[in-house]
Amino acid sequence: MRSFLFYKLVAIFTLLVVATSLVASCGVKPTAVPDSVPITDPIKTDSGLVSGVVVTEAGKEVRVYKGIPFAAPPVGDLRWRPPQPVKPWQGVLDCKEYAPICPQQKTRLTTEEARRGEDCLCLNVFTPAKSTTDRLPVFVYIHGGAMVIGSSRIDLSYFAGQNDVVAVSIAYRLGGLGFFAHPLLSKESGRGVSGNYGLMDQVAALQWIQRNIAAFGGDPNNVTIYGCSSGGESVLYLMASPFGKGLFHKAIADAGFYGNTRTPPLSEMEQRGEKLVAKLGISEGPDLLAKLRALSADQIVAAVPVSTSGTDLQLPNVDGWFLPDYPLNIFQAGKQHNVPLMIGSGSNDLAGSWNQYFDKSIAAAMGSVSAPVYAWVFDHGQCGRGGGTHCLSIAYLFSDLSKREGMCDVDVKVSKAMVSMWVQFARTGNPSVPRLIEWPPYDPTTDRYLKIGEPLEVKTGLYRAQPAAGETAGQATYTNSEYNFSLQYPSNWAPKTGDLGPSVVWRVGAGNYNVPAVRVIIRDQSEGADLKAVFAAHLAADGNKTIDTFNASEVTIDGTKATRAEVTYTGAVGKYEGLLLGLIKGGKWVIIEVFTVPAYFPFASPNQKTEIINSVQFK
To answer: Could you tell me which residues come within 8 angstroms of residue 600 by beta carbon, excluding any fewer than 6 positions away?
Structure first.
């Protein structure tokens, strides 16, 4: 017969087992294997049920959910505060249409007539998953637009369906509504900080993905963030911010680092905020914030310029809290999130000052952590003409180029290769694709990167100029045999082949919008007695532009007399500045102009336009 002690030990053991199970259930729950649930509408999120639409892309069904709120509308007292939780809704939220785009100015670069509104903190989900256990990689797109324009309205259904990924595009507050800092807001915060609300919105969207994406068949433990231009900037900010921890597992920054000038310290942004308040005509006082919050979004938007540079911009700031330091400093100190990174730019970006060396600095600084970094240069233009313009890579990544007008077989081939590498990276953290390319991690000692074009090439010398024989490093030469002159321009500037403008016979330029640029204009001698008159006639024909200032002098080049002029003028896009060289040959005015729109696309250096004009030689 068993002893009393035996039964007592059994009882104690049983109590320990029960107690242990209670501790597990009341504490942190172990990760459970989810039940397989078919993905059908409505889908349950932590704020309520949503329904979308099913589309078919190249024979693949994709469920699309547009305008899902991830934060409460930042209106009224919530303006210029961190994003707040969504108020749960009853019933099923119809997610078949995009949400309003965040308030911004209408420009030539944002022509869509979409409704604008502060109730814009929504995201869009594109999923080909059939079951919640599919656990597909999640690919998050963060739009660009210099932190002042842009939207999440991009169709990712083709990309999601063809690559078995769950694609998500997110919105965030922009400009004066997203990055306005002010001493009173800093005091109100309780942390002594203000601004960076747009970046906080991105964090809130990624937190929503962690909580909800499994219901759409995505894997919350395999999230890749991607953005181009200020979207690429955002990727690096999220890598540098402690608030990004655990929210993503791979990162891709495309044309996204511009140095410290676009990330001022909080003190400077507070001064800009005070300047903005004065511009809005709001008087200082205890009710200042209430008066500002009572303004319409349009009033605030109109007071902030649409530009990539300048002291009136409202930008992310180094506040010691959300951004503890400048991103490059954080990377060099090894304090960024230790996740694999891809970083690169279009080859034409490298002709300007935007990110010629900064991408390389970030790539080199990734040596401070164990995660690999892969560097690239996108060096492909439409149908193989010219180099990679600013963010052209987005079209090659997300679009079906076989159905896009004006594209060639080579574009489709480059697109397929690029998509394969990006998706492979999202799946594994390594963009190398068997039988396509072995892409080595970047190492400053070998300086190897991938040139994306046709063909794909692993090269050395990241962002080092590769001049053609006989050319000055980083320079290309244009020769006009009809009027017997030549000039030099940055070799990464691309020719513009269509819509050159009236009387323009040749033009090259930088970036996606082909500016800064140099062009040659030929007009009849009868159109003007001097350079100012004939150039005014040209501007009138070229979109009703008008001269603001014109300072001319007579010069002699290689024995040829000409007029040289500094000029500024105004058009629909804004203010232009240029340097002209003009002369009469064979009854024609020959005008060489180097120009840009400085608010949007500054020259690479203050002397760039002078250097190009000084390179002109007459035979």
So the answer is: 306, 307, 308, 513, 515, 573, 574
Q: Is 524 helix (H, G, I), strand (E, B) or coil?
A: strand
Buried b (16+ CB within 10 A) or exposed e, 537-547: bbbeebeebeb
Residue 385 pLDDT > 70: yes
> Is the link from the previous residue into 431 a cis peptide, with omega within 30 of 0?
no
- Burial of 55: CB neighbours in 10 Å, binned 0-12, 13-18, 19+: middle
The Cα-based distances of 155 to 140, 168, 298 in angstroms read 13, 10, 27
| DSSP code of residue 38 | B
Question: Which run of H or E residues covers position 283?
Answer: none
What does the DSSP assignment read for 433-489? BTTTB--PPP-TTT-EEEEESSS-EEEESTT---PPTTSPTTEEEEEETTTTEEEEE
Name the token pair of 164. 């078995």
At 522 the pLDDT is: 97
Separation of alpha carbons 471 and 467, rounded Å: 6
Rounded Cα–Cα distance for residues 222 and 126 (Å): 16
Instruction: Name the token pair of 66.
Output: 């547009």
Confidence of residue 235 (pLDDT cuts 50, 70, 90): very high
Q: Report pLDDT digits (tens) over 127-173.
A: 999 999 999 999 999 999 989 999 999 999 999 999 999 999 999 99
The DSSP bridge partners found for residue 591 are 521, 582
Q: What is the pLDDT of residue 12?
A: 35
* 8 Å CB contact between 68 and 122: yes
DSSP state of 23: H
Q: What is the pLDDT of residues 30-64, one digit of tens each?
A: 334 457 789 999 999 999 999 999 999 888 999 99
Q: Is the pLDDT of residue 471 over 70?
A: no
C-alpha–C-alpha distance, residues 460 and 468, integer Å: 16
Tokens coding 244: 């990004």
Confidence band, pLDDT 50/70/90 cuts, at residue 468: very low
- List CB contacts of 522: < 8 A, sequence separation 6 or more: 483, 503, 505, 588, 589, 590, 591
Q: Are 30 and 132 in contact (CB under 8 A)?
A: no
Dmax over Cα atoms in the chain, in whole Å? 125
Measured between alpha carbons, how far is 366 from 328 in angstroms, rounded to an integer? 10
* Angstrom distance (rounded) from CA 70 to CA 83: 9
Element (H, E) at 272: helix 266-280
End-to-end CA distance of the chain: 119
Q: What pLDDT is stored for residue 461 in this prediction?
A: 82
Angle at 308 between CA 104 and CA 535, to 5 degrees: 100
Per-residue tokens: 561: 């007399």
Between CA 425 and CA 416 the distance in angstroms is 14
Residue 51 tokens, joined: 């329904």
Taking phi over 0 as left and psi of -120 to 50 as alpha, with beta for the rest, 562 belongs to: beta
Measured in whole angstroms, how far is the alpha carbon of residue 541 from the centre of its chain? Answer: 34
Question: DSSP characters for 171-225?
Answer: ----HHHHS---HHHHHHHSSS----HHHHHHHHHHHHHHHHGGGGTEEEEEEEE
In DSSP terms, which residues pair with 589 in a beta bridge? 523, 584
Q: b/e per residue, 337-364, with b = 16+ CB within 10 A?
A: bebbbbbbbbbbbbbbbbbeebbbbbbb
Q: Which of 394, 453, 152 has the alpha carbon at shortest distance from 255?
A: 394
